[in-house]
Amino acid sequence: MERFQDENKWLGSFYNEILVKCPKCESKASVKEELKEKCECGRCHNMVFECKNCFYKINEPVYQYIAFGKEYCNNCHEKFEYQSQPLKEKPLTYKTKCPHCNFQEEWKTKTYRVKVESKLDNGLVRDHWYNLPLWFQKGVCKNVLWAYNQEHIAYLERYIKADLRERNNNGSGNGTMVSRLPKFIKEAKNREKLLKVLEKWKE
Length: 203
Known about the structure:
The protein is mostly beta strands and about 200 residues long. The chain is built from three helices and 13 strands; from the N terminus they run E-E-E-E-E-E-E-E-E-E-E-E-H-E-H-H.
């Protein structure tokens, strides 16, 4: 009988390297932790994207800006709301048309920023920093099985293989990765299908 005991790992335990699809060449690339320069504590880090195939590198996420607001038209005096498409630069003012009378005006605007989304493979599971599709993901049992890296794959495999799965209650409650796994991963009827996918990812 195979046995699994929860090591109280959470998803962040596997953030050391997240394998993704490169937006330039579509090869396997990675988002890795990198220590910040001139860091005295040694704990500060940021996540850097790098592709060893085409040498494309990003040190920080790329953002775009959305202009928005509520105004009263100076022509028909009706109140309206507006929101722009994503803009490359942060605007101080934004020109828009009144939806009631088509009168065009320029307003001092509010903005919020959004991460630039990859245009590759919409609908797939993505990393949190650069919004790039994870390299390891596959549709199984009408759900998506995914993993960040080989360490994550090995941990999932140990859990799925186990006949006896033990929780290690150290006060972490429902915060561990295992406690939050979706139902299709926990069900014994899906074990064989899931293990075949994980075995292929290990090759």
